Amino acid sequence: MICGAAIAQTKSAPKAAPAKPNLLDPSTLTRTAPATYKVKFVTTKGDVIIEVTRAWAPRGADRFYNLVRAGFFTDATFFRVLPGFMAQFGISARPDVARAWDSAKIQDDPVKQSNKRGMITFATAGPNTRTTQLFINFGDNTQLDAQGFAPFGQVVEGMENVDKIFSGYGEQPDQGRITAQGKAYLDRSFPKLDKIISASIVPAAPAAPKTAAPKSPNAK
Questions:
Q1: DSSP for residue 133
Q2: CA 204 – CA 160 distance, rounded (Å)
Q3: Cβ atoms of residues 72 and 92 within 8 Å
Q4: Which residues lie across from 196 on neighbouring strands?
Q5: Long-range Cβ contacts of 186-192 (<8 Å, 24+ apart)
Q6: Distances in Å between the alpha carbon of 55 and those of 2, 39, 107, 216?
Q7: What is the mean pLDDT of each run of 10 residues along the chain (220 residues)?
Q8: CA R_g for the chain
Q9: Distant-in-sequence, close-in-space partners of 178: CB < 8 Å, separation ≥ 6
């Protein structure tokens, strides 16, 4: 006699709802960016508009898109500004947020565009180490291309404001202390640094309303 074990029928558990975007949890901020989009930085030197082309560096474009949408760059300072070279930023003004993203690395993108004036690129500490730090090129830094720095967008408006960003402190601000102490450290020790007041995705212009095609005249 063969005894068959009864197999209980169980209903599949309902799928959990996706986690809400949370600036303190990088795993909730992984949305795919549009093919192209624009970001407006309101800075202490004026507005800057950046146009991103995802095909240039998809992983970088996606990361930037999610950081902007989550408000990561609010009060973020241009902490390393080297005339003729670049303006670096992307450490959160909030220490808790900076710590949360410190190890949220993304894989490298192939370099498809050159680091020319106005291009925006993620900083790295070696292969596959991009997190949140970026820089805008002041000059044509094509020597960075062979080092794996992959631009994903470019300044299309307000480059004259980028040129005005304060550079008097050079490389004095300590990145470790910025991460640990945030805005308080920079305001106390480097009060002249310029910053991003806010960053937002610029809405696409509404499509022009369709107009009815003129009717063909009727032959009499």
A1: -
A2: 23
A3: yes
A4: 43
A5: 186/77, 186/79, 186/93, 190/77, 190/79, 192/166, 192/168
A6: 62, 17, 15, 44
A7: 41 58 95 97 98 98 98 97 98 97 97 98 96 98 97 98 97 96 97 98 64 46
A8: 23
A9: 77, 79, 91, 98, 185, 186
